[in-house]
## 1
Amino acid sequence: MRVDDLYSQRTKYFRTSEIRELLELSQRPDVISFAGGLPSPHAFPVEEIKEIVERVLSNDYATALQYGPTPGLKIFRETITEYVKNFGINADIDDVFITVGSQQALDIVGRVFIDAGDVIFVSLPTYLGAINAFYAYGANMVGVPLDEEGMRVDILEEKIKELKKKGEKLKLIYTVPTFQNPAGVELSEERRKHLLEIAAEHDLLIVEDEPYSMLRFEGEPIPSIKSMDKEGRVIYMGTFSKIMSPGFRLAYVVAEKSVARKMVVAKQSMDLCAPTFTQVIAKYYVENGYLTRRVEKIIEMYRKKRDIMLDAMDEYFPQECKWTKPRGGMFLWVELPEHINTVEMVQDAVKEKVAYVHGRAFHVDGGGTNAMRLNFTNPDDDVIEEGIKRLAKVIKTRM
Ligand code: PMP
Ligand code: G9A
């Protein structure tokens, strides 16, 4: 059968994800993987979930095992409406809906807002899963460099003006303000305000994707962009993947009602509804204080892992390398000398039984070829140093 002639035009925009492709490799027991953005299995709230499941199956099975409404169970949306107050967000229940991971929320943004050729602004580097979700709708992704304080909004402003002059259709700015994936940096408060002003001036949406904001090891929280948004310009996303379990595939969106409604209609044909079982479990997890207690433990665990990794890098990495020192989250970003190609170096690393994701995967401009992302949360404490030693050897051999 000549199936190639039958694929839709849309499939030409699809890209494979380096992270997803690497997942199998990084789960090989002999490989020390800094590649996947996976939580530590020791961070999972196993006992809490056991206790809650027992209770849900006894008391709430009629709801928890039934189909639910597309926006999510009302009882859980109420929980989320309360929960997002932690981020300074005063939402109405109709602004909130539940998705199957924030990855689905990104796909819905694409479906609802992106026509082929529309301009979407992202930072360099940015989250690969967002790049691929938006590319799938034919987005014209424009990259804006970032530094220690996140996206360079001054450069963003210049790019907006330049593209507007050319008559391009500009749609939205995508940002992961807190402990960004992949660079681990935080967008400063001043830049958050400026970003919102720029979006208002040019009538753009902001997609604020915040999986890591609860995982702060040090420093004061910075207000979310959504908390400063008076016009309904920000589509905010949060997820339970990094504070409960990614296996639950549970996330939420807070957006202005009419936008939320349009997104929910898009979701109706995708999956009817997010799993009701996990929504009911997560409701108890949040409301009974399990979440708060668990997050404290996760922070302790991840801070230690970050420190082990940073200490090992100080000891073993060549002086010519530079890296970020994240105050939270799950990743750090390494820049090697210009002539080292981290895309090619992946094979050397795998031979040495260590894995990372090369920087180009997180770039929409072909850049990042001398950079790499390291995840410090998934490997056990006692293998991080050995993994860094192996990686340092690979880098030194290339140099
Ligand atoms: N956005 C960002 C920035 C992420 O890092 C991730 C997961 N690595 C996601 C979205 C998707 O998360 P999930 O679908 O598990 O909620
Ligand atoms: O496994 C995934 O695709 C989720 C993790 C994303 C990442 O590594 O950034």
## 2
Amino acid sequence: MKAVGYAAPSSTSKLEPFSFERREPRPEDVVIDILFCGICHSDIHTARDEWSGTAYPNVPGHEIIGRVSAVGEKVSRFKVGDRVGVGCMVDSCRHCGSCCEGLEQYCENGFTGTYNSDDKIGGTAHPSTFGGYSNKITVDERFVLSIPENLDPAASAPLLCAGITTYSPLKQWNVGPGQKVGIIGLGGLGHMGVKLAHAMGAHVVMITTSPEKGEDASKLGADEVLISTDRAAMKAAQSSFDFLLNTIPVGHDTQPYMELLKRDGTMVIVGAVEPLKRVDGVSLIFNRRRLAGSLIGGIAETQEMLDFCGEHNITCDIEMIDIKAVNEAYDRTVKGDVKYRFVIDIASLES
Ligand code: NAP
Ligand code: ZN
Ligand code: ZN
């Protein structure tokens, strides 16, 4: 099947139009006409080879919303016309301990990422998977999600990565009423963290380097704003948080944030997929504080998050762009200049 999209030809080039193949559907596959795709900071890290190991050309995009256009004969959960989503994974081994527990993101044999992964199913001339900056995709139905029809489809796209990456640790650490929760870094992930923690009943504090984002606090569901560059405010907030979700996209000194935790509090790192610059043992030991990490979420949990968002009417705050503006959107995202997620209108590919 012919497909068109945008690809990065190398780590230093801009993304540009690209034609490629998608596999014909196998009996358990769903073919999706893509409508919208969010721009996750991970797309940028990958397109620019900041984590090394990117295969080129690279078609990023793992916040995919579309309509089913064809189904294989064994597909039981979807039919033509259904509104569906695809997130960061399109396959996993399905038999290891993690897969059997519904934790495909921790597959012991390595899950297949939606882009830049070795495509174990194959069926095309390309060895790597290609993501959602494209007009169609073929995915095994086990990795396809249902999108509640009451949610705006474009504003739902970032739920597929930003939504589940924040929902999963908030659930895992039982965030809820009576807790003071800080969300660090107000980008795509962070603003979803604020909305979800608020819906779970916590007292939510936005922790940001951008004072102007603080103006959106009540609209997003935050009870307070803490400007992390304000040393006096950070000192005044020391030892007051039960839980912190840290979405900062680069390695950084964790100590100013760890100091915010109460005894027995936990900070979960989801942003820095790279070495952290400083972790202070004294501060951990003397307050029994915990530093942890979390990777996206499993397929069943992603569906649970989507249903939760459907019930609570939660979507993302987005800036919709034409695909021709993708390179500019990358630069703006790196500068933290996005409220709060860019979403590509895939219809703009046609023109
Ligand atoms: P994003 O939209 O760029 O948001 C990151 C935010 O962090 C920025 O808007 C900014 O917010 C703050 N920030 C940026 N640089 C900073 C710095 N040097 N120091 C302090 N704060 C800084 O990124 P995203 O799409 O939310 O993704 C965040 C990170 O999570 C990326 O690295 C991405 O690769 C990673 N990620 C991880 C997973 C996972 O499974 N663990 C899944 C998806 C993405 P303020 O203006 O509010 O300060
Ligand atoms: Zn992502
Ligand atoms: Zn597995």
